[in-house]
Design brief:
Helix content: 25-40%
Order of helices and strands: EHEEHEHEEEHEHEEHH
Low-confidence stretches: 123-131
Strand content: 15-25%
Oligomer: single chain
Number of helices: 7
Shape: globular
Largest sheet: 7 strands, parallel
Length: 275
């Protein structure tokens, strides 16, 4: 979609967790569609991942995702028209960030869509009067791809081990999880936000059909690393909401992930998030 035909062109969007795996991917999708990003960051480190070619389209605001005053101030000063709440928070029972974001939006404008990403299983926000009031939820299994600096996770640990000549790390063989490439997950988040104007807030599970255990996922990465086609379970493509489907093949998703961690290993940890 070109900037001239994008519903995001010229808009300013608040993104919490903008330097994380999914948050950074959502930012890059917004940049590609002509939007500007107001990124809430707790620390300045990591903010340079947006430096190349963004042309002033990112504005950083320092603060916490559970600070209603700071959130409301950022929304009002920058006149944002949507919020993606992607900051990693506490377990759901102790989540203070999501209620704070919703409270800030209610003070600012109830017409602003708020989208959060959550696991496929349902959740509730205890101790809050309206658990999902005004909130749209995009649900995923395991999100993977370039830019994940949590090296204990399956994709980073496997890719770094392969590039280091160590072979596969020890990985559990169960349970199985639906894996979603991060750029496809980011597109799903934008699709949810676009749908709010039509149907109002909703709760949407997205599945790629790439259902694998950690061990099998690691083996698929090794297959691609060695130049072979990865093996996937023979299952029918899952039905997904909002007309969403993965745009990146499993092979390409694994190859992009491997390439990014190869660059990370060569540059001593200075690789940027995938644009």
């Amino acid at each position: 979609m070109s900037e001239s035909t994008s519903p995001w062109a010229g808009r300013r969007v608040l993104v919490t967790g903008c330097t994380g795996l999914l948050g950074a991917a959502v930012c890059h999708e917004l940049f590609d569609r002509g939007a500007a990003v107001v990124g809430l960051i707790h620390e300045r480190s990591g903010a340079d991942i947006f430096a190349p070619g963004q042309g002033g389209r990112v504005h950083f605001v320092r603060g916490r995702a559970d600070n209603v005053f700071r959130l409301h101030s950022a929304m009002a000063v920058h006149e944002v028209s949507a919020v993606f709440h992607l900051a990693a928070g506490e377990p759901f029972a102790a989540d203070r960030g999501t209620p704070a974001v919703l409270d800030a939006v209610r003070l600012y404008s109830r017409r602003v869509p708020v989208v959060a990403a959550r696991p496929l299983q349902a959740f509730t926000l205890t101790g809050h009067a309206e658990p999902l009031g005004g909130l749209s939820v995009a649900r995923f299994g395991e999100v993977f791809g370039p830019g994940d600096r949590k090296v204990f996770r399956t994709a980073p640990a496997t890719a770094l081990a392969l590039h280091g000549g160590e072979g596969l790390p020890p990985l559990p063989d169960g349970p199985v999880t639906d894996h979603v490439f991060v750029r496809d997950a980011a597109r799903a988040c934008l699709r949810v936000a676009e749908d709010v104007a039509v149907r109002g807030p909703g709760d949407y599970p997205f599945r790629s059909g790439w259902v694998l255990s950690d061990r099998r996922f690691g083996a698929a990465m090794r297959e691609v690393f060695n130049g072979a086609a990865p093996t996937l379970p023979d299952v029918a493509p899952p039905a997904n909401p909002l007309g969403w489907a993965p745009e990146t093949s499993f092979t390409d998703a694994l190859q992009e992930t491997l390439d990014w961690y190869g660059a990370l290993a060569r540059t001593g940890g200075r690789a940027r998030a995938a644009a």
